[in-house]
Amino acid sequence: MAVVTTAPPTLSFPRQTFAKLSPHPFLLAHLTPAEPIRPNGRSPKSFRSPTLNTSSLSHASGSAVVRIGDTAVVCGVRGEILLASDVPGHRVGSSTQASNNDEIAELDLLAPNIELSTGCSPAHLPGQPPSPLAQTLAQRILSLLHSSTLVKAEDLRIWHTPSLIADSDTAEGSLQEPEVKAFWCLYIDILFISLDGNPFDAAWAAVIAALRDTKLPYAWWDIDREMILCSDKLSQAKRLQLADMPMAATFAVITSGRNTGEQKSQAWILADPDTFEEELCREVISVVVQCSVGRNVRLKKIEKSGGGIIGKEEMSAIVAMAGERWEEWHSLITGTV
Question: Tens of pLDDT along 104-119?
């Protein structure tokens, strides 16, 4: 009687188990082939397709919902009035004296706040205090709002021109100089519904879209009541006029070496990293660019953390990819093709 021998069963793991047990070799197995494809199905230079909806919140001055892959953000802008008399040391100035945009930073007229404790990811459960990531993102967005001078100070001022005062000698009226009676303070609330990597790009895009959607009601100083009044007519509301539309693009650097001291390790630049890739990266670069007619890319800001792999050639390629990403965002936000 013949004996049939069978080969012992081989041990195999599903993709999800392999990724959890050995994440770095799992990612390298996708990047080392001649035509690398990331575990999420994208090439190293490809971004996730964004979607955008504006005016989503009915009780906000402006709002937007941005989704990039599995990262979804809701941003609402709420305008509140700050009386000039309530600002310590503030001197009521004329139009010439008050033309400096520095007062936006000095008076804190832009106040972003980020909420991650919404259950958007396993690392951010509801009820937790603000995480270091949320505080860092809020500070980065505030710094970029100030450095880019995106919001004009003139749009946030509420002026009042005093009435004619009769001159006893000439019996003619003299027109007083206009003065700033109050300011609009914009509270920018950013709430993450879900988070799968690259929170800064999604949050900044939501801020840009929400500010472009913001309409502030017509406000004036009432002499009799000595207070600011606002009109409830939508036709009199004034839309914010943003000075520019700088957009952010984030890239992660993955190396084949496990130790940072390995000099001969191979490196890959991954555009728009997800959470899995962010946990394995050795270097992160965020580039903020503004493009103009003729595809002229103007570099607004660079933020870099970790590593020293990126050189001049790699940075030039990153800026070029950021310019392409800007065109995609510009078409989506402005509604142009």
Answer: 998 999 999 999 988 8
